[in-house]
């Protein structure tokens, strides 16, 4: 008996790296996995390896989510949506950022997550519960000047996960973001890889990130940003309370849900 027996999962960006490691682990735990990737051949190889189903799709395109939903319905519904596909720009100078670079990273890193939730949530809700997991990054929690656009998109993912979580909690659906440091994936190019190797900086094995993904899928916690670093256990990031209003009685006048757990009067 696996932890995910009888479960159905979608993994975007599933042909390599974190996505492949996560799809493999979910299949090992008994899930039927739909591997989605813009690399159709890679998705097919991954799906054959884990006895799953592959869909070649660009997650930034709204119309292509229709094909993913069709695949989900062949299994009768969905329990787990892992929205993992992501890209970088490699551009630290925002004035040199080309429009094509901007559209691509926004399309994959932000639209691909938003469109994924919009398309897949109706397939999860009838199951009476489930899990949505989004790949952010350590750059979604801290400044990463080497790629400001990547940093912006990953902050957006964290904000989306934390804001959706309380809305979906009463449906039994958890929403969490995974925030790894530098992972040994194809996104780390040869030049950067060589520089890191020269300093002895440890890259994170994709399997370690996959374990963290599995942990939030089977867990009950929601609205978390889970930090994954080499040599450390996955750890929820502790957000400090933002300063709230000081006006007398302000707490009772603020609409429910606006403050959540991050801003309170006189905090």
Structure description:
The chain is of the alpha/beta class and 267 residues long. The chain has helices at 17-28, 40-50, 65-74, 99-124, 148-168, 190-199, 206-218, 250-253; strands at 8-12, 32-37, 53-56, 80-83, 130-135, 173-180, 225-228, 235-236, 242-243, 263-264. The chain has one domain (8-236): NAD(P)-binding Rossmann-like Domain (Rossmann fold, 3-Layer(aba) Sandwich). It contains eight helices and ten strands. Strands 3-2-1-4-5-6-7-8 form an eight-stranded mixed sheet, sandwiched between helices. β9, α8 (250-253) and β10 form a beta-alpha-beta unit. α1 (17-28) packs across α7 (206-218) and α4 runs parallel beside α5 (148-168). The N and C termini lie far apart (47 Å). The model is unreliable at 262-267 (pLDDT under 50).
List the helices and strands and how they pair.
Blueprint: E1 8-12, H1 17-28, E2 32-37, H2 40-50, E3 53-56, H3 65-74, E4 80-83, H4 99-124, E5 130-135, H5 148-168, E6 173-180, H6 190-199, H7 206-218, E7 225-228, E8 235-236, E9 242-243, H8 250-253, E10 263-264
Parallel strand pairs: 1-2, 1-4, 2-3, 4-5, 5-6, 6-7, 9-10
Antiparallel strand pairs: 7-8
Helix pairs in contact: 1-7, 3-4, 4-5
